[in-house]
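FAQ
Q: What does a multi-component entry look like?
A: The components come first, one per line:
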Amino acid sequence: MPWLERVLPLLGTVVVLAPMALTAILGLAALLRIPLGEAKTTRILEVGTICGLAAAILVLVGMLVGGSRHVTIEVGNWVLIPLHYHFSVKFVFDRLSVPFAILSFVLTGTIGTFASRYLHREPGFNRFFVLYTIFLLGMVLTSLAGTIETLFAGWELVGLSSALLVAFYQERPSPPRNGLWVWSVYRVSDAALLLAAVVLHHLTGEGDLDRLLGAGNWPYQHAAIAPNLALSVGLLLLLAAAGKSALVPFCGWLPRAMEGPTPSSAIFYGALSVHLGAYLLLRVSPLIDCSSWLAGAIVVVGLSTAVLAYLASLVQTDIKSALSFSSLTQVGIIVAEVGVGFRYLALAHIVGHACLRTLQFLRAPTLLHDYHKIENAIGERLPSGQTPLWSRLISPTLRTSLYRMALDHGHLDACLKEWVVRPVVRVLHACDATERRWTDLLSGEESRESDHVKLHYGMIDEQS
Amino acid sequence: MNDAVETKDSDKSLEHGSHESSDLLHIIEHAAHYLPAQGPITVFIHHNTLHAFEDLQFNEAVEIGGELFGTEPYLSEEQYREELRRGRIRFSELCEELERDLGPRGHEPIGHFGSRFKLRLAMLEYPHRQGSTSGLLWLVAEDKLLKRVRSEISESMRQHFVADTRRWVMRDLRAIRENAAGPGTTKATEALLEILGRFGESRIETWTSETWEGFGLQGLWRLCCLGVREVPPFTSPPPRLVRHSDLLREVTGVDSDERVHEILIRFCAAFLDQGLASWRLPHRDEGFFQAFCSLYRRPAFPRISWLQRLGVELSRLQDSGVSPLESIEESLEVLGVERHERSRFFSATMLALRGWAGMIRETELRGDRVVNPSPPGSLVEFVAVRLLLDRFALEECAERTIGYTGPLNQLRDRLRAQYEPDWPPSLEARAFQVFQVAQVMGRSLEDLYNLGHDEWKDFVEEIESFTEVDRRRVYHLAYERRLARQALDAISLHSRSSTSPAGPAAFQALFCIDDREESLRRHLEEVAPESMTFGTAGFFAVAVYYKGIKDAHFVPLCPVAIRPQHWVTEEFRESGDRLSERESRSRRAIGQALHRFHKGSRSLTAGALLATAVGVLASIPLIARTLFPRSTAQLRRFAGRFVEAPKPTRLRLKQDQTPSDVYTEGYSLDEMTKIAEKVLREIGLSSDFANLIFVIGHGSTSINNPHESAYDCGACGGSSGGPNARAFAQILNDPAVRSNLQLRGLAIPERTRFVGGVHDTSSDSIAFYDLDELPDSLQSEFEAAQEKFEIALARNAHERCRRFSSAALDLVPARAREHVEGRSEDLAQARPELGHATNALAIVGRRERSRGLFLDRRAFLISYDPTSDDEECRLLTGILEAVFPVCGGINLEYYFSRVGNSIWGAGTKLPHNITSLIGVMNGPSSDLRTGLPWQMVEIHEPVRLLFVVETTAAKMLAIMNRVDTIGKLCRNGWVQLAVMDPDGERIELFERGSFRPYKVRASTLPHAATSIDWYRGWREDLEFAGIVGR
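Then the predicted structure of the entire assembly, as tokens:
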């Protein structure tokens, strides 16, 4: 069916263009200070999301009917040095990316509708939806990316919008603080991804994922790459995934991300972006086949996250933290599944888990109502917190320590602060001191005048 | 507590020690009164947020409270000024209030500036900007304040200013220079001449009016700076910071509380958890202090030094058996808190995490209202733990920020040495005040130039002592005055024309006094003019612990002040019904399955299985409930009907066995008779009984709403009042009760039937109870009445919809009802209804006096017939005792949640996170949020409730003297009070300690044919009007 061959790329373009158009419209309106109003914003979002979703579903149908399992859209090269280097923008539609893109559209679309009513009359309504469209665009770009640079672009957009949404309530001190925390972790993860991209370019001269992962359709590609190289690129990608998916040792940011309005917590951290790391690993899964060490590392990270998050979820006393750690438990398992090589299972797990968790997050404020209903149905009080059976096997002292560890989210934040942040800051301070010593020595006097200048605003009279 | 000097040796004596600890307990207990007194959110009970201050006058209390809690006592000046612009506040009334506020002092002249009244009025009328020097700098540059006179003043005043400046400079200033050249020149002259030079004096004849304006303003500014420089500031300094961490934050910007709270919030939540976490806090049974020591005594991982030291200290405390109180003493010693500052220190310490501390206190005091109560003494243990954490966090922060490693008891002195408070205000900030006032008062350069030192002092003192809070108070009084006048005028004018339905009523209906029922009653009376309605507290004097057939446990259904003595259950009419047994078994099974699913989806392996296998299915309810909330709800109800057919049930009201000591199951005949008689006498229904008398309680259903209970019946302790209405109807249908009532002179005809029902104020529907018992002869009458109810409900929904900006103004009643149904079932709806928002009035009297008056859902309506009361007003006293705390509590909670939403209220509900099944936090970790969320109070006008009682002033005064709670609320101005003459239209208003005749100002009351005609097309608050019918 040759016409299908021509139509599919067109549809694919719509899938990418729809969220871009949304971002452009809402973003420009905000920049140019054209107030759109709640009703119009909602309408624009509906149209955009439905267009994108419909196109994505049509691509899926087209691929099923036409038998094609791999459709690429080449947008072109940003940089091209023939034979040596190119930097291209490319989108890939295959068995992995299409379901993930559809999932993103369905969930963000639903949450968008939800939020348009939930945030009614909220002063930050417009800001929320600008960030929301950026998030959607980031999700779609990441899931459809055919080169590591495109993936990075989407990855960054997701990170940026997420951090700003966590800090949505800027007037209180703790949301910006936690937003900054999320942002910092994301930066580490971004840096790892960027390094991976650089290594990739060194290896192959281009960032195209299919060159790295070998010919064939996902998941049946075979990467022709030396195990050691696979390990080094893979570990960088694992670090990137760990930051984005809140795996060990970055688990601490996930509950902190619950500062924003309920729908953004629900979709962005609880259900969608927390799966992005797992998605990245799925995308590069042929690489994992090349190195059993890499596979082992992924399984270890996944399982330890799952166990730790499970323990933490047992002791959480607020519903959003409890849900976010339950979410993390599953993400850990998904990552382990990817490491073991169960790729379809992992994909199904992601899709199912994202849907389930979104529903649970959205219903979080109705918890008291639900408890009441269940209690009434059962006819007695629900058992209120006991000691888990397995923990009776260990000594009470150990049990208390374990409880404290779980309550403190596995001490991971403290470890990061103590063992990573503090040494880094100390090194930077030392550098600064050295620089100062040298400049003072060279100039023969105190060289930093800024140390002694006080804040000065001028005089009111000068304003005449 | 001023005997601060205390020798250390005397501390050691045992006797003194025990005296001291009881003293300490007393101080802590006293400080604890400031904590929010809100219980678990599942039973939300409205109460006066500043209950602890009720002994003070309202305005004193809000101002002190505002400062103590760090929030607003009134709306902002800008908001009031906006109300003045749109006519909600009248200028004439603002003047009146100012005059009243000043009293005779108002006429005293202030220098050459006219009277004090005039000066203050100018400050009220025009925006008065304040700020730090840098803020003013920006303001001056941005608004060109030194080039153009203030934009608020009129063009003619501007021209005057320019002309005056010009005339004075050209004629006098230059003459002054000629005369006083040399060293004798004053600073003011020097300054003005300097500016003159800068502006180019040589071409002074060609200056444009703009140049003159700029020159005048700069001159004025310099004169103000010079004038203010010579006088001391008249504002009072900010209170001295008593907590170490507050000082540290002010000085260094680093908050040691952050570290403390991170741990303390988690621990409090775990301690108070009512069953959210699956793993219970170890050693919880041993109390707050011991549980904390056991958990945190172990070495920290990774080794964070301050936690490490805390662990060592906790081990010592626990191992040597130091009690929490002794530990507090130790901490005070370490922190160097003097005896005389203890009281302030404890209240500041507790208020730093007031929500959690308050909840610990509440679960300690009212253990009967929670599953896991806090053992006695928990609050003291909380304070002990808090001080321990404070100590070690302070050590750490002080070392890191200012390198202080000395003893903590000298930390405050060290910090105070570095502390630069915002007081006294900078010269510029002070001068700017004067600069603004001088302009709006039309003062010229010459006026200020000629001011002597004493005149400057008077002028500046006058301006600075009329603080922002004072201005807001005057505005607030005018704001309240307008509404009170509208209401009293309307009530007075209306009673001239009010009529009661002639002939016997077709049916009668008893409602709750709730302000939300006002509109339903009005619409019902419009739809069925031959009906009569009554209002009484919605628990209908049936104070019980109730357990419905589908309920797991008993809940108290009565005002919070009462502890019920009776237990009532609902049961199937035919006991031992096999069908019902099977049904309850299947319900149980479904419930358990649901519970397992809830838990399972959050566990490790079961979660993985569920997510992979059926997770995608969750998208169906997700999408359906989000996109089509109402249809989904209908579908669910439809499906629900298959599972269970409704079966006739009854309340088990009558006592079977002899009562036990404390609680009894059901009521004795005597008690039932008393309940019936009490209510009927109170509302004045003692004859002319209709065939059908409805008794309607109310509740509210909504989903995804942690504050759901706050919308329920306040008189039923934050639950639905349906069972109470049903019980009351059942009592009055009891033949034995009726014959007893007959003996007491209340002859209810045999034909008369009482029908209970419950009104859902969110979806606007009414469900009636026990219709199977209705005799066939009344069936058609019932159906006719039910039809009227349905129409009235649709109209009520329609009237409510005018307040929802997401409901179109052109809805028809039927659509409006669909709209409100949708709201109550929508997961994404943050405002299922608006609750008591806009409440402002409480009318206690016969319905005839207010029937046909459009009160805009703003009035609590309490039925009371003064003609059937005795001389001592025993009936009225009983009513007011119940009604004052309930209505006053609701009104004041709304007031405080509205004016100080971020502190006294719960803030916006969008980031709320249910914690411990007991309250909500903002996000993952914050103080427990008490009060009402913004979405509930957004459209509320914060005014004190105006009670209008149909009685005489003398009788009311007698009640106020007899019942202290009522007297206190009225005398201290926590509610406004008026009485209306039972025999006429005369109204007397209670002001400054006595009743004074109220003069009606309006001449006519506006009229409309129906309520819809009056409110249609409006979203704002409306004036009161007479509804005359077609």
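Q: Is there any commentary attached?
A: Sometimes. For this entry: The beta strands of chain A are 70-81, 85-94.
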